[in-house]
Specification:
about 180 residues; mainly alpha
Length: about 180
């Protein structure tokens, strides 16, 4: 049982401190074949910091309207009399050229930021798995057609292709996400 991560004496006895003893108890919750991988993951402090930051930002995105000091700023209300105010108790991030609270804009923009990263990745993952499975299962001419289509996309410069797709579909964040998904497939 103590050979889960190859440090049986320090983890069983707790000789190296409370941190490793807690880690050992946490590892016992997982299947034995995954305990070593989780121990390696949890032993790196930068990995834990990155995971906590990611979870924090997802929490901020989910509860953006509750966390933003001025959630009405998302509606495009302009306050020209409050332009370029420095950070203060009222506006923690200051205001921009339209008098909008910068902190509220950052918090409310986190949803779009996360979605614009996750949706293209998921779309290209699904498209790649489906097309790769079809090409692998149905050999012959269908495989050749799919592979030549992939070669065409790989031969084009990605940025120019994304700009062309966005221009063809129209200017919007949704069309930009579609363009990124197509280019990264």
């Amino acid at each position: 049982m103590g050979e889960v991560v190859g440090r049986s004496t320090s983890m069983e006895t707790g000789a190296s401190g409370k941190g490793n003893n807690r880690l050992y108890k946490l590892l016992l919750l997982f299947p034995e074949e995954q305990q070593e991988k989780i121990a390696i993951f949890l032993s790196n402090p930068l990995t834990i910091i990155g995971l906590l930051l990611l979870l924090f930002w997802i929490f901020v995105a989910i509860f953006a309207h509750q966390l933003a000091p001025y959630p009405e700023e998302a509606g495009g209300v302009v306050h020209l009399e409050m332009r370029f105010l420095p950070p203060s108790k009222e506006f923690l991030g200051g205001t921009d050229h339209l008098g909008l609270d910068v902190l509220s804009l950052v918090i409310l923009g986190s949803r779009v930021s996360i979605l614009s990263g996750v949706l293209p990745i998921m779309t290209s993952l699904i498209a790649g798995v489906v097309l790769g499975s079809i090409a692998g299962y149905f050999r012959g001419s269908l495989e050749t057609i799919i592979m030549r289509g992939a070669d065409i996309f790989l031969a084009m410069p990605r940025l120019i292709l994304a700009i062309a797709i966005t221009a063809a579909l129209g200017r919007s964040i949704t069309n930009a996400m579609i363009a990124v998904a197509v280019v990264s497939t």
